[in-house]
Amino acid sequence: MEHAKKLLEEIGMEGERVEMVFISASEGNRWAETISQMREKLKELGPNPLKQNRGSGK
Amino acid sequence: MGESGLKEFEPEILAFACHYCAYAAADLAGSMRLQYPTNVKIIKLPCSGKIDIIYILKALEAGADGILVAG
Amino acid sequence: MITAVRKPLNEIIEMVAPCEKILVTGCGTCVTIDYSGGAKEAAILASQLRIARRLGGKKLETLEQTVERQCEWEFVKEFTDHAAECQAIISMACGAGIQTVAAAFPDKPVFPGVNTRFIGMPQKQGVWEERCICCGNCVLHLTGGLCPFARCAKTLLNGPCEGSQDGKCEVNRELDCVWQQIYDSLKERGRLADLQKIFPLRDWSTGEDGGYRITVREDMML
Fold it and tell me: Which one of C38, C39, C125, C170 has the fewest CB atoms closer than 10 angstroms to its CB?
């Protein structure tokens, strides 16, 4: 994962866009929390810069 | 503000989840009726050890705002 | 194996700056097993280059192809179709592979994707050590299986220099003195008598000092 972050930072993207967590099968609440936290962080980071440069359409 | 007309940014998260751990947890979260953001798309992996850097890079190229690898 | 490390990304970005479509080629032998230039590394580099280009608001198309060995004509020929579509080729093979690709496609720029380091071996996961400098006149039978040319900063052939202290090298105190290791190795093998032999002045012309080396074997020729 550290390598993945480094690869992103090498090209000028935020490494924080990639996260790794360990959630056991019994931790449904942890899943929900993790997703919410990640959403908050990504809201701060803003959209993936590659999306804007994709031109029109998907 | 000029930006007020813009829709608020909702990040798209791509989660790579282990079939036995996090995927089951996500399933459980569903059955527990827990509220969590809907903007997450889950790709089930047989094991989070199956994750490859190229999956992450390609997901970002395809426009994902964030990637979560959940084991 | 021949070991290499990926070139810094910004160097590669600069090389391919004028190109719109490139072929990123991996090599399936040495650089695959040292994780520097195999199919996976080629895919990662191609993706990074595409992302970097898009962040700059432009587009880069990439093709990726990995062959068994880039240091042989038969294998690099497999790049022909993809190469025809591209303006340039990045070779992630060792220097031998890059030059073979460059010679096979004389009408295209060929860029190195890695820096070739040395002939060595993975000492443990993630650590590679140099083992052979291709001197062309092996002495390993007399030195306990340890090469004093590859592992001694001064390439000494008749015992350690006075900089050898507590089994460490004076050039870098982190490194073991190979002559200490040779002594230990010969002792363990019961061959300390080999140390009594004096190596005469050495003819280095069989190594790189002798100029461009070419091996010709009439028996193997067609």
Answer: C125
Residue A45 tokens, joined: 């980071």
Asked if residue C213 belongs to a domain, the reply is no
Domain-embedded: residue C129: no
Residues C83 and C159 in one domain: no
Last residue of some domain: C83, C118, C153?
A: C118
Give the pLDDT confidence score for residue C86 in this predicted structure.
97
Percentages helix, strand, coil for chain C, rounded to the nearest 5? Answer: 35, 20, 45
Chain C partners (3+ C-beta pairs within 8 A): A, B
Closest to C51 (Cα-Cα) out of B50, A51, B14: A51
DSSP-based three-state secondary structure for A22: coil
How far apart CA C132 and CA C2 sit, in angstroms, is: 10
Distance in angstroms (rounded) separating the CA atoms of residues C118 and C3: 5
Which structure tokens are listed for C97?
């592979």
CB B53 within 8 A of CB A15: no
Question: Do residue C147 and residue C61 come from a single domain?
Answer: no
Shared-domain flag, residues C70 and C160: no
Q: Please answer yes or no on whether B54 and C40 come within 8 Å at the CB atom.
A: yes
State the fold for domain B2-70: Rossmann fold (3.40.50)
Residues C77 and C18 in one domain: yes
Average pLDDT, chain C: 96
Q: Given CB atoms, is B43 within the 8 Å cutoff of chain A? A: no
Predicted TM-score (pTM) of the model is 0.89
Instruction: Compute the distance between CA of residue C157 and CA of residue C31 in angstroms, rounded to an integer.
Output: 31
Distance from CA of A6 to the nearest CA of B (A): 11
User: Domain-by-domain residue ranges, chain B?
Assistant: 2-70
